[in-house]
Design brief:
Low-confidence stretches of chain A: 1-42
Number of strands of chain A: 11
CATH class of the largest domain in chain A: Alpha Beta
Number of domains of chain A: 2
Structural class of chain B: mainly alpha
Number of domains of chain B: 1
Number of helices of chain B: 13
Number of strands of chain B: 0
Helix content of chain B: over 70%
CATH topology of the largest domain in chain A: Alpha-Beta Plaits
Order of helices and strands of chain B: HHHHHHHHHHHHH
Strand order of the largest sheet of chain A: 8-1-10-9
Shape of chain A: globular
CATH architecture of the largest domain in chain A: 2-Layer Sandwich
Mean pLDDT of chain A: 86
CATH superfamily of chain B: Formate dehydrogenase/DMSO reductase domain
Low-confidence stretches of chain B: none
CATH class of chain B: Mainly Alpha
Radius of gyration of chain B: 20 Å
Helix content of chain A: 25-40%
Largest sheet of chain A: 4 strands, mixed
Radius of gyration of chain A: 18 Å
Strand content of chain B: under 5%
CATH architecture of chain B: Up-down Bundle
Bound molecules: iron/sulfur cluster
Shape of chain B: globular
Structural class of chain A: alpha+beta
Largest interface: A-B, 51 and 41 residues
Largest sheet of chain B: none
Oligomer: heterodimer
């Protein structure tokens, strides 16, 4: 994909600033968490594991995300779905936290006509440059996870950016930071010593809508993938509460 | 269910198809006769096509601007930079179907204006001094019109996240619908503008337009059949998505009554009713102007409804399962 000059310069600057900041701040970081990998390896690939066994469906992540970015009413970068299944007394309820999957084969990037949406080569985060985006909504249509929306102030597409402004300074994403049950684990999956890489390696992880070929960077442990519209489980009552303005999964 | 692409996009798909179809039909009619008998007789068809094409292309393209998030924010905030943010489309070239399509569409609009210019003088005829230029331009008009008609189908079809659209045959459906609406547009224009003159000449042009339109409608129906059967006979996302236009689906009446019955079958059968006697028995082709206009209007309305159903159906369905 070619990029026009303005995009390159702004994007290049952004990347240089963030890499520089990451090198400085992460070198100074003492916690030894996965973010420290930024300094030693440029082939960083950020990923998140959502351990649904530890999720209590409290929506603290959704609120933290909303606050961090002043996400307008009616729009969500991060939300938690409740998946209810079965008939009494054989019933279950699981929580499914949702956010952008920062796909390794992102459809949103493939379709973007302006190059405003792109995957950062240095850390794999998929971002939107709101100064370039024209708000054509093609990426909204193309994302199989319905995680994008048009921000009413900018008119541009918006979504989770893995808290780039925090991560580039060696600070954990807001939702990860706030998670009570430590259900969200974030870090560099290319660093075998990182918690996220170890979680992925030692657990049966799944991704959402694997058949879409997007190769997500967000992994789930013990996720209930049930959907009310599918007939995978015959005669089974399934209900999903998205807790979004958009009530139905798309 | 939220529709991210609404009426402006539906109108755009319809008008761009109409304009591209008219341009292609005009170019091919002109080339078919090489300025000889056929083009000489039917020069007026080529002329109407050429004169019709630019307006829907320009108005349709103008419509999509109203769907852009930045344009809407620009209006609300009186922000000039946001109003003209769409220029970013033309600051880059990439493999996005929308990017390629925008360049092709931009070219097509400019080209259609230049092409129409060569037909503009009231004395324009098949053998005037512009005829060479016109012929060269017609060679470009045909592929350019086809490209505009097809790209919209590729744009919608390129997304696995939209199983209703994610069909290889959608682009062909858009192409034939564009050609059919292009012919219908020319048919209407011709019937409205030529009331008082030589009945023989009028019938010749009306006949050729009606036969072509009936053929295009037949091909459209075939593609619709394939489109539905491929999706319906499979399992998973496409079968689930196509159910919205099958019995029990929310768009079933719009599709079968609006698009198929009134937009295709009725005008197609009426066209056959008037053209078959000439085709089979060489009887003279006689049809009332009002019937020609009614056929054209029905085909145009059907073309619009087809875009409506497809744009809505694609957005109210999605992948099944999580
Ligand atoms: S989840 Fe959607 S928006 Fe995020 S990277 Fe994947 S395709 Fe793009
Ligand atoms: S809305 Fe913006 S980011 Fe999305 S495809 Fe259009 S230009 Fe690209
Ligand atoms: S990583 Fe940041 S932007 Fe993404 S869901 Fe978490 S808080 Fe929101």
């Amino acid at each position: 994909m070619s990029e026009h000059g303005e995009g390159i310069s702004r994007r290049g600057l952004l990347n240089r600033i963030s890499l520089g900041a990451a090198t400085v701040t992460v070198a100074a970081a003492t916690s030894g968490n996965a973010l420290a990998a930024v300094a030693k390896d440029s082939q960083v690939h950020y990923a998140m594991v959502l351990d649904t066994r530890r999720c209590i469906g409290c929506h603290a992540c959704s609120v933290a995300c909303k606050t961090e970015f002043a996400v307008p009413l009616g729009a969500t970068r991060s939300w938690v779905e409740y998946v209810e299944k079965g008939t009494y007394p054989n019933v279950s309820r699981h929580f499914l936290p949702r956010l952008c999957n920062h796909c390794r084969n992102p459809q949103c990037v493939n379709v973007c006509p302006t190059g405003a949406t792109f995957k950062r080569s240095e850390d794999g985060i998929v971002v939107v440059d709101k100064e370039i985006c024209i708000g054509c909504k093609y990426c909204i249509q193309a994302c199989p996870y319905d995680v994008r929306f048009i921000h009413p102030d900018t008119g541009a597409a918006d979504k989770c950016d893995f808290c780039l402004h925090r991560v580039s300074r060696g600070v954990a994403p807001s939702c990860v930071n706030t998670c009570q049950g430590k259900a969200r684990i974030f870090g560099d999956m290319n660093d075998p010593t990182s918690e996220v890489a170890q979680m992925i390696a030692t657990n049966p992880v799944t991704v959402l809508r694997q058949g879409m070929g997007t190769r997500p960077s967000v992994f789930y442990i013990a996720a209930d993938h049930s959907d009310p519209r599918e007939t995978r489980i015959p005669n089974q009552y399934v209900r999903v509460d998205t807790h979004r303005r958009i009530q139905e999964r798309r | 269910m939220e529709l991210h692409w609404g009426l402006p996009v539906i109108i755009y798909l319809f008008l761009a198809g109409l304009g591209a179809g008219a341009l292609t039909v005009s170019g091919s009619v002109l080339l078919r006769g090489g300025g000889g008998w056929f083009a000489g007789q039917h020069f007026r068809i080529a002329r109407y096509g050429a004169l019709l094409a630019p307006l829907p292309l320009i108005v349709g393209t103008g419509m999509i601007v109203f769907e852009l998030g930045t344009f809407r924010a620009g209006i609300e905030q009186f922000d000039i930079a946001k109003l003209f943010r769409w220029i970013n489309l033309f600051k880059t070239i990439n493999l996005s179907p929308m990017n390629i399509g925008s360049w092709v569409l931009g070219l097509c609009i400019l080209f259609s204006l230049a092409y129409a210019w060569t037909f503009l003088t009231p004395t324009a005829c098949a053998k005037d001094d512009q005829c060479k230029v016109r012929r060269v331009m017609a060679w470009i008009a045909v592929p350019l019109g086809i490209a505009v008609a097809i790209y919209t189908g590729i744009m919608l079809g390129a997304m696995p996240s939209r199983p209703f659209w994610n069909s290889q045959i959608l682009a062909m459906l858009f192409l034939f619908s564009a050609l059919s609406t292009g012919v219908a547009g020319i048919l209407c224009m011709h019937a409205i503008c030529h009331c008082e003159e030589n009945q023989e000449l009028r019938a010749q042009a009306g006949y050729i337009l009606s036969v072509s339109d009936a053929l295009l409608i037949g091909l459209e129906l075939l593609i619709i059949f394939l489109f539905i059967m491929f999706a319906h006979l499979t399992i998973g996302d496409p079968a689930h998505a196509i159910a919205v236009i099958l019995p029990g689906g929310v768009l079933v009446w719009w599709f079968w009554i609006g698009v198929v019955l009134f937009g295709m079958l009725v005008p197609g059968l009426v066209e056959l009713r008037y053209t078959l006697p000439k085709l089979l028995h060489h009887n003279p082709y006689r049809v009332l102007r009002s019937v020609e206009i009614a056929i054209g209007v029905l085909v145009l309305a059907g073309g619009f409804l087809l875009r409506y159903v497809i744009v809505v159906a694609g957005q109210i369905t999605g992948p099944v399962g999580m």
